[in-house]
Amino acid sequence: MTDAWTSPNVTAYMAVTGNFLDQDFNLTSILLGLLEIEGPHSGVSLATHFLSILHQYDLEDRITRITANNASRNSSMVNEIASMAETFNASTHAIGCMAYVLHLVARDGIKALSEGVSPTTCEQEEPPGPMAIVNIINPPDGLGLRYDSIISHVAGLTSYLQKSPQCGENFAATVKLIHDVPKPTNAMYVLAGASNMP
Known about the structure:
This protein is an alpha+beta fold. It contains seven helices and five strands. 40% of the residues lie in helices and 16% in strands. One of its GO terms (molecular function) is zinc ion binding.
């Protein structure tokens, strides 16, 4: 599994974890490496960093699957890894992160309902790669929901309750809100789900 991100102080990182079953069939996860990434976050650069971490443990030819979010750069990365590592096949061994897929489906579904746009007319930034998701939302049903309005109201309520101790204390007895962050790995669906009153 791998993830790359930029910290608040604008330093880019890549982490690679190894996940395997031990001799007693217990799932084991270990951090293989955490690198600072300099230069472009291209598929070639990410693949080179990824393989450099695996090389430290002589694991380049033991990749069975790669799980990453569905960003286009990760599609490029797994294609590059396939060209560099003989035993890795990007089309059958790359797995998208399900939490990220659900986030995108929820976000795009709300946006489609908000704008009255058919899912088949949504623009794609690039042709789908091995990590791409298929648009699985139903056509809008004319509810007139506004994506920006829903998100801003829930996010605004979250911020208000976190900054007002009295309101926050009263509300905390009912539900704890999660403040959304603008990162591709966030889970907007968790934000919306946690905001439901019992």
